[in-house]
Design a protein that fits this description.
Layout (H helix, E strand, L loop, with lengths): L5 H14 L8 E6 L1 E5 L5 E6 L10 E6 L14 E2 L1 H4 L2 E3 L7 E3 L1 H13 L1 H4 L2 H12 L2 H4 L15 E5 L10 H14 L8 E3 L6 E3 L7 E2 L9 E2 L24 H17 L1 E4 L2 E7 L4 H11 L3 H4 L2 H16 L3 H4 L7 E10 L2 E11 H15 L14 H6 L19 H11 L5 H14 L4 H12 L8 E2 L9 H20 L7 H11 L5 H18 L1 H15 L11 H20 L8 E2 L3
Parallel strand pairs: 2-8
Antiparallel strand pairs: 1-4, 2-3, 5-8, 6-7, 9-10, 11-12, 13-14, 14-15, 15-16, 17-18
Helix pairs in contact: 1-8, 3-5, 9-11, 13-17, 16-17, 16-19, 17-22, 18-19, 18-20, 18-21, 18-22, 20-21
Length: 597
């Protein structure tokens, strides 16, 4: 299967979605119109409508409106959908009194732009807009907008003919004329260069600047950023300026950015500051729920029983392997694309780009879930942990602490996503962070044990798999020491009760899991004392516990002086397995292993 680069794939997606009406044509974007100016055929303003709802984030009437591109410096009027500075020539000043500031040069720019299209469009409804702009006098008309002054500035305004239902910018001839002219509207003669488009391969006019991308932002940063941008002389060569260094036609630049903006609003998983976008070459239900497979079902969607059940069934099908998804009607040969994007100053950084087939991707997900598979601590623990729950394992579990992506190393989320989607080893930095956190807060839970098991399973030098639950046949010292520490801890709590201020885990876990030889001889003496106290309560429990400790100790000839990071991971798995069996009272042991594919 042949795959192209990110930008080329985005443009191909744009063309396929534009042809079926899912994405707008060149020069348009899906946006909100907050206010509607109703005019008659003579260009007289008859009525002003407020289209915004009463929500905290007020949204207007959704429409595919003309868009000229990002406004930076200078005056640049938009077509038929703009703010009051351009369409009405005034803006409310920030004061309680109804006072205005006039912008005659902005109103003139809007008049000139609309008059430029009047002859080619030749439609009475559009003529009415041109007449309105020509006759409108801000100094005389501003009082008609007094009731809206608190929420009027910078809001988008569009036109409508009185008694008509649609906007004037939705008229077919208006859209055609704008789409054919808009890409070339702002190119100065000295900037116009003909070249071979790196996306389409055709000879055409090259876009000096690409449209902005909205949605990949960092707190306090710009809302609009560029995926392709050159703003320093050091980045240019051969007399080419700006984006001519990466030659892209006007239609190509518009197409890939439109597709990217659409995906960021509808096909995105947000992991920290990284936006993971995804799409399929052909629409299918896996594409619709793919984000839920990795990030979980959000609360607002979880209430939909059908969607929740579909996600659960798909996860179960993925875990069972090949052949099951085909029965569900999934075309596993269809191309599937995933990209990780992060903000960087005014640009967008591509963290990873993974073109693949849907079948290959689901195979990687199956391998990922198999690597994670470990006996659950509680029935409420998820069979398929989300990406966030795995990253959350590297953060504290203190009472009152609110976990945040900001507390994680900046590159960790991207490294984990690559490991999941490409089937590569899990990042050592994640395992190291989890192990450090266990030593600090003495908490070994399901997600921490699961990610360490997955990390160990995919280590290149690993021999054999790791059992899902307690493996009594496993005799490597780190695993046995973890089991032994769990047995010592449980003996202490059984003998002295659960109301202890400090358990041996609180006092000795860090040293026991790193330098066993300095701690375990002391723990053995303490264990004998606790075992004696346990025998006074329950002689049968004492005998069984002593048999268990003896069984674990038999293969151990000595205590290691130091455990490596991998061995500390094995210690955690042994500790978790043994604790689970001790607390559940389960005498049967599952020893199924998950070998690295």
């Amino acid at each position: 299967m042949k795959h192209t680069g990110l930008v080329q794939s985005l443009f191909q997606y744009y063309e396929s979605q534009r042809d079926i009406g899912e994405l707008p044509q060149t020069g348009f974007r899906l946006t909100d119109v907050h206010y509607t100016l109703s005019i008659d055929l003579n260009g007289n303003l008859v009525h002003v409508s407020n289209n915004m709802d009463s929500g905290k984030k007020s949204k207007g009437q959704l429409t595919t409106a003309p868009y000229r591109g990002k406004r930076t410096a200078g005056i640049k009027a938009n077509f038929l959908c703009d703010n009051s500075k351009y369409l009405l020539g005034f803006e409310w000043q920030k004061s309680d009194a109804p006072s205005v500031q006039y912008f005659p040069e902005y109103l003139k720019a809007s008049r000139d732009l609309h008059n430029k299209f009047r002859k080619s469009i030749n439609h009475p409804h559009y003529d009415a807009v041109c007449i309105f702009l020509e006759n409108w006098v801000p100094e005389e008309g501003w009082s008609r907008f007094t009731e809206f002054r608190k929420d009027f500035n910078s809001r988008r305004i569009a036109f409508q003919i009185l008694a008509e239902t649609g906007f004037i910018h939705e008229i077919a001839n208006v859209r055609t004329q704008w789409a054919s002219t808009m890409p070339r509207l702002d190119i100065k003669k000295k900037e116009a260069k003909i070249g071979t488009c790196s996306i389409t391969g055709k000879t055409s006019l090259i876009a000096p600047v690409h449209p902005p991308v909205i949605g990949v932002f960092d707190p306090g940063g710009q809302a609009e950023k560029a995926l392709v941008s050159f703003n320093c002389d050091a980045f240019t060569s051969y007399g080419l300026v700006q984006s001519q260094n990466s030659p892209t036609s006007l239609d190509g630049a518009w197409g890939y950015t439109t597709a990217l903006n659409h995906l960021l609003s509808s096909r995105r998983i947000l992991i920290g500051d990284m936006s993971v976008i995804f799409w399929a070459e052909k629409s299918n239900f896996v594409e619709e729920i793919f984000g839920f497979l990795l990030s979980g079902v959000p609360e607002e969607v979880a209430e939909d029983a059908a969607t929740r059940r579909q996600v659960e069934n798909t996860l179960e099908a993925i875990s069972k392997g090949s052949g099951v998804l085909e029965v569900l009607g999934v075309d596993t040969d269809v191309s599937f694309y995933i990209a990780g994007l992060s903000p960087s100053s005014s640009r967008i950084t591509v963290r990873f780009w993974l073109p693949s087939s849907l079948g290959n991707l689901l195979t990687q997900l199956q391998a990922h879930y198999n690597c994670l598979k470990i006996i659950r601590e509680f029935d409420s623990d998820p069979n398929f942990p989300t990406v966030w729950s795995l990253l959350r394992a590297a953060l504290p579990y203190w009472e009152g602490y609110r976990a945040s992506y900001d507390d994680l190393p900046p590159l960790l989320a991207g490294a984990l996503m690559r490991a999941i989607l490409q089937g590569t080893p899990y990042p050592d930095s994640l395992a190291s962070a989890v192990i450090r956190r266990i030593r600090a807060d003495h908490t070994v839970n399901y997600c921490r044990a699961a990610i360490l098991k997955a990390w160990l399973t995919r280590k290149p030098n690993r021999q054999g798999g790791i059992s899902v639950s307690l493996d009594r046949k496993r005799i490597d010292p780190p695993y046995l020491l973890g089991r032994l520490f769990a047995a010592y801890e449980k003996t202490q709590t059984d003998a002295l009760g659960d109301g202890l201020n400090r358990t041996i885990s609180d006092s000795f876990y860090a040293s026991a899991s790193t330098t066993p030889s300095t701690v375990f001889p002391r723990l053995e003496k303490t264990y004998r004392h606790h075992l004696s106290s346990l025998g006074k309560k329950n002689i049968g429990a004492r005998v069984n516990r002593d048999k268990l400790v003896q069984e674990i100790n038999d293969p151990l000839t000595s205590y290691p002086t130091h455990l490596s990071l991998e061995q500390q991971g094995d210690f955690v798995i042994g500790y978790y397995h043994q604790r689970k069996e001790l607390f559940s009272g389960n005498k049967t042991t599952e020893t199924t292993t998950d070998n690295q594919e």
